Amino acid sequence: MSERGFYDQGALVAVLTAQPIDRLLDYKAPEGGCMAGAFVEVPLGPRKVIGVVWGPGVGGFDLSKARSILRVLDVAPMRDELQGFLTRAADYTMTPLSMMLRLATRAPGLGDSPAMRKVYRLGSGEPERATDARRRVIKALGDYGGLSFTLGELAEVAGVSSSVIKGLVKQGVVREEDSPRDLPYAPLDADYSGVELMPDQAEVAAAMRTSVASGVYGTTLLKGVTGSGKTEVYLEAVAECLKQGRQALVLLPEIALTAEFLKRVEARFGAKPGEWHSGVTMTERRRLWKMAGEGAVQLVVGARSALFLPFRDLGLIVVDEEHDTSYKQEEGVLYNARDMVVLRASLCSAQVVLASATPSLETWANAEAGKYKRLELTSRYGAAVMPELRCIDLRSESIPMGRWISPTLRDAVAARVAVGEQAMLFINRRGYAPTTVCRACGHQIGCDHCDARMVEHRFQNRLMCHQCGETKPMPVVCPSCEVEGKLAAVGPGVERLAEEVTALFPEARVAVLSSDLFGSARALKEQIEKIAAGVCDIIIGTQMVAKGHNFPLLTLVGVIDADLGLQGSDMRAAERTFQLMRQVSGRAGRVEKKGLALLQTTQPEHPVIRAILSGDEETFWQAEAREREAAGVPPYGRMAGIILSSEDVAVVFDLAADMARRDGPLRAVSAQVFGPAPAPISKVRGRHRVRLLVKADKGVALQGALKAWVAQFRVPNSVRVAIDIDPQSFL
Ligand code: ADP
Ligand code: ZN
Question: Measuring CA to CA, which residue among 212, 210, 198 is closest to residue 242?
Fold first, then answer.
C-alpha cells in the first residue's frame, strides 16, 4: 500500500463477497491499483462475483497462486463508516459479514456499464407556433436550469403529452440527447416552502435544528399525538440537514404510507426525494444506490433496508412511527432497524429522530434514563382535537350469535353516516373467520404443515394458513368425520365483519382495507387515496389502517375487540395493545370535527383499557416499566431467542435439551437459559420448532457467551439454528 487507503497493482488485498463463505478472500490488486472499500469483480471458482476491498490481504499461502481482481466497478468505494457499521451490526446480530454485505448491496446490475437513454434539454430554436402546451415545456426546461428530463418526466412536469415534446424536438426547440441512465436527483430546496409553525412546534423544531447543526451524534425522541405536527417539525430538521450539505434519510414503516408522504415532501422541498422500498423498480434502485454513494441524492424516503444504503455523508435519520413492529426484520438477518439506525448514526456523526405518538417501551426508557433527548408536542394542530374515548362494555350489550357489532356501536355508525362523515371499524384479524369447526364432530381444520388453524378467506373461497401461506379449497365434507354440510365459521375476521356491516347498512358504501385483498402496493395506495377523498362511508380494516393515513372525513372509530391482544404469552402484549388502540383512536377527527373512538371490551377494568380511556400514558409506561424491571426483561435486561428447527422432532428436541444442560459459557456470565419448549408456533412448513430463551443482566456481553455456548455442539445438517438478539415476537 503506497498511500493511505490505496493498494498498488499486485498488492495482496482481502475481499469481502456476499457469497456464503465465512471469511475474507485474498486477491491481488488489479492493474492501476484500487482504493480500500472499492467495489470489485473477482473470480471465484468458475464464476465472477462482486465484492468489496475490505483491507490488506492476510497471505500465508503461495502468493504466486493468488488470483487478481478482475476490475474495479464504476461506483463510489464503500466508506470506512459503512464498513465499520456492517462489522458492528454483524457482531451484534451474530450474522456472517457476507450476509450483511448482501443487505448493503441490494441493487441489481451494480457492475453493469451505465446504459444510455434519451434525455431532453432546451435547444436553441423558437417554436413555430407558441401554444400553451409548448410554452409549458419550455418553461419546465428553463425552471430546472440545465437539468435534463426523460420523455416521461418532462411530459409529467409540463403536463403535456409526449407528442408535444417530440414535435418540439423536430423544430429544434428541444434537444434529444443520449445520457447515462443513472442521473442525479433533482436538488431539494430547503427554503422552498413551509408552514408557519405554532409556538410549541417552533420550539421543538428549533431544538432539532440546533442538534442537526451541531454535526455530532445524538438521538431524540419526538413524541406527539397523531396530527400534532411531528412530520411538519421533523421536515424542519431535514431542511437544516440539507443546509449543512449533508444527506437525510426518513424511514417509514409501511410502503402504503409513502404516496401521501412523498407529495408532502415534494411540496416542502420543491422536488421528489429518492424512494427505496419493494415497490421501486430495479433501475430506480440501482440509480438510488449509486447516487447515495455519490452524494447526488439529498433525501431518501424508504423502508427499513434503506438504512444500509452507502450514503456519502449522512447527517440525519428519522424513524417515523418508531414503535412499529415492521422495523424488526424477522427473516434472514434478524435485526431491528430502529436500533441499527442508532448504531449507524453514532458511527457517522448523525442525528436520529425517533417519532411516535406511542413510543416503544425501549425508547421511552432510554429517554427516561437521559440517553435520548425527549421533545414533545402535546396538542393537535389547528381545530383538530383529541377524540373522545369511550368503552362499550360487551357484558351489558345484547349481540346475536355470529354478530360482533353492538347496538351502541351500530347507532353511533348510523349517526355519522347520516351526516356524511366516515366511520371506521377495526378488527385485527384477516380473512373471514379465524376458525372453521365441524358441528358434527367438533374437528377444527388445521394446516397440514404447521401448528396453526386454517383461516377461511371467503373472497377467495379458500382456507389459508397465516403461518406458511398454504391454501386449500374449502372442503365440502369434514376431513375428520366426513359428514357433509356441517362446517361452520367461528369468530370474526375482517371479511365477515364486512358482511355484517353490509347487512346492517345496506345503503352505505363500504371499503375493506386488508393487506391481502390488494394485488399490489399501488392498488392499495389508490384505494387509500380514494377513501381520503370520500368515496366510502364505512371503512373496515385490519391493523394496517392504524398506520398514519390521513382520512379527513373520518370522525368515528369502532374497535370490535379491544381484548384481542391482552391475552397471550408475549411480554409485549400490553404495550402492543396500548399502542394499537391509541393509534386507531387517533385516526378519528384529524381535521375540524371532533372524533369519537368506541372500544368494545369485556374487561373495562383491565389496566391497559383503563390507561387508554383515561389517556394517562405516563402512568401506563411507569407501571409497565416496573413490571419489566421486576422480571429482568428488556429493556431492563438482555434476552436472546434460539430457535432450533428440523423435520425430525426427536433430533431437534435432543439437541435443544443438550444445549440447555451444557450451559457453562452462559453461566460464566450469569446468564440463564430457559427451555427447551416447543415454540409458540411449533411447526412451520413441516419443520418442528423448539425454542430456548436466554436471559442476562443488562451489562452482560451476551453475544460472546452465546457464541462460545453454541460452538460446543455439533449441529446436524438437518437442523437450523437461528439466534434472535432482542426478540420482539416470541413466534
Ligand atoms: P403528525 O406527523 O404528528 O401526525 P402532521 O405533521 O402530519 O402530524 O400534521 C397533521 C396535519 O396538520 C397535517 O396535514 C399538517 O400539514 C397540518 N399541520 C401541522 N402543523 C401545521 C402548521 N403549523 N401549519 C399548517 N398546517 C399544519
Ligand atoms: Zn401452514
Answer: 212
Q: Please indicate whether residue 575 or residue 649 has the higher confidence score (pLDDT).
A: 649
User: What is the average pLDDT across 612-634?
Assistant: 83
Which residue in the block uniquely carries the three cell numbers 364486512? Answer: 498
317 is written with which cell numbers? 435519520
Mean pLDDT of the chain: 87
Q: Which ligand is nearest to the CA of 550?
A: 1
720-725 sheet: strands from edge to edge: 672-684, 687-696, 638-646, 720-725
Query: In the predicted model, what is the mean pLDDT of residues 50-66?
Result: 87
Residue 376 — very low, low, confident or very high, per pLDDT cuts 50/70/90?
very high
Measuring from each residue's beta carbon to the nearest atom of ligand 1, which residues come in under 6 Å?
Answer: 195-198, 201, 224, 226-232, 381
Give residue 318 CA to ligand 1 midpoint distance, Å.
Answer: 17
| DSSP element (H, E) containing 210 | helix 199-214
Helices (H) and strands (E) in the chain, counts: 20, 31
* Residue 518 pLDDT exceeds 70: no
**114 pLDDT higher than 80:** no
Report the separation in Å between the CA atom of 606 and the middle of ligand 1, taken as the mean of its atom positions: 33
Distance 682 CA to ligand 2 centre (A): 11
Q: Are strands 435-438 and 299-302 parallel, antiparallel or unpaired?
A: unpaired
- From 222, 232, 262, the mutation candidate for ligand 1 (largest count of ligand atoms within 8 A of CB) is 232
pLDDT for res 256: 47
Q: Determine the average pLDDT of the residues in 597-621.
A: 84
| Residue 10 identity (one-letter amino acid) | G
Kindly report, residue by residue over 396-433, the tens digit of the pLDDT: 998 888 899 999 999 999 999 999 889 989 887 888 98
State the pairing for strand pair 6-7/34-35.
antiparallel
Q: Which residue has 398454504 as its cell numbers?
A: 470
The CA distance from 677 to 659, in Å, is 12
What share of the chain in percent tops pLDDT 70?
A: 90
Burial class for 123, CB neighbours closer than 10 Å (0-12, 13-18, 19+): middle
Q: Is the pLDDT of residue 1 over 50?
A: no
Residue 590 has pLDDT above 60, yes or no: no
- Determine contact, residues 164/134, Cβ cutoff 8 Å: yes
Q: Whose CA is nearest to atom 20 of ligand 1?
A: 229
Q: What is the C-alpha to C-alpha distance for residues 166 and 548, in angstroms, rounded to an integer?
A: 41
- Pocket test of ligand 1: the residue of 381, 386, 583, 585 to mutate, having most ligand atoms within 8 Å of its CB, is 381
Contact 218, 181 (CB under 8 A): no
303 alpha carbon, distance to own chain's centre: 5
Taking the CB of residue 385, how many other CB atoms lie within 10 A of it? 14
Residue 4 has pLDDT above 60, yes or no: no
The atom number, within ligand 1, closest to the CA of 384 reads 12
Question: How far is ligand 2, taken at its centre, from the CA of residue 646, in Å?
Answer: 15
